[in-house]
Design brief:
Length: about 475
Amino acid sequence: MSEEPALDRRLPVPRKPRGPGIYVAYSIAGALLLGAGALSLGHLSKYRPAGQPAMASPANAAPAKPPIELAQVQPPSAAPTPSPAPAPPPAPSVTVKMPDPKDAKPPADAASPTTAPAASSAPPPGALLPFAVSPLGVAVPPPGPPVIAGPGDAPLAVLIAANGLPLPPPEKPPMPGRRQGLCPGSTEPAALVETSPLGRLPRIAADGCMPWLAYAANFDHLDREHPRLGMAVIGIGLNEALTQKAVETMPPATTLVFVPETPNIDRWIQRARERGLEVLLLLPSQNPQGGEDKGMAPLQVGLSADENLRRLRAVLAKATGYVGVALLPSPVREDAATLRPLMTEIRDRGLLVLEFERWNGKSQVHTMSRELGVPYSTDIDKPIAWVDRFKANDRETTAADVDAGLDAVEKHVRAARFGLGWSLARPLAVDRIVAWAPGARSRGIALAPVTGVTECAENCRKRLPRAPQPPAATSTR
């Protein structure tokens, strides 16, 4: 029994034979494609590969230009490469020599618009161009030199990061015209440093030069026309961002008081001095409220003189380049037996003393400084000396508060002709002092470092270094 076909199955349709018209259409399409290809080849024939001469008639051919060659970058110690001879005139070409990465160096500064050559003119042979030319005509900067850290930088950075300490301040070139101090020019820096088991201690040089004179900032001490206003910021060093702000932005001829625990304190002090600032170290002393003291071991009433001297020297050995030490209100400055050996040590080290809030308590620092011959400075004997003092207990100090404090100090100095104001290390206070300083100068105020508002009484003047006198002329008969 045969299977019947399904009723819904479609039967194949017989294929009709192709007529001659389809072949004509194919022929026309092929001809069009060949024509388009020929036109494209004709258009592209006007371009040539690098190094091949262009097709031009002898009558219309332009004179050939010498080849342009980018000189290969040479290391600084190598002799200059002589420029190659020009290629024959028939075929101008462009030869690009890429610098060797190991000999590469940053490009030189671009020429000024008044001296730059025209864009169409060729550079002189052997000239260094800041950019190479790619085959597509796009300027490509040369590869820069690899950044290689010094052998000791990476371990130091790793250790600092592991201890949670801020990194050292960036190295920057010194500012031109920085004054070296008030000592003879022959004084060597090493003559002002004494090596001890605690570290490097300041000392008076053999020629009589003292650190408070050697590290003094540039200031016209003979100016008697303008009122002198000193401005100090206390507590610099524990906050890296704030330390950098103060060191880099505070006006020259102002004073920074560093805490001795400051990481990398020598580099911060060096940078501050390069900018024309003066630096002091804040002496840790006994808390007048009797609370727990933080940081280094403080000077304290009731300790032996030897122990207090050891603590003082431990602070002084933390850095070099400072002009003196600063004292805050403390029982130490009210106790003569505790204070005298400390002031004697400060004198013998050639340092000055800056005392804050002398009016707060019964301080003996000023009286003892005149007796022992210690250079002495203090702030204004009024609460207005603290320019960023809180105005109320229920709010923070505002910019208007600091501006009012600066105006009060300036008004006092205009009447007294002399004075020093101060602020705590706060970003707002630093910003307002920076904004206030140019106007104060324009109003006739002379900003002075702490050495410009320091009292050197009779016993202090006797210890100043004397300039060598020329030998007396002897008469011959």
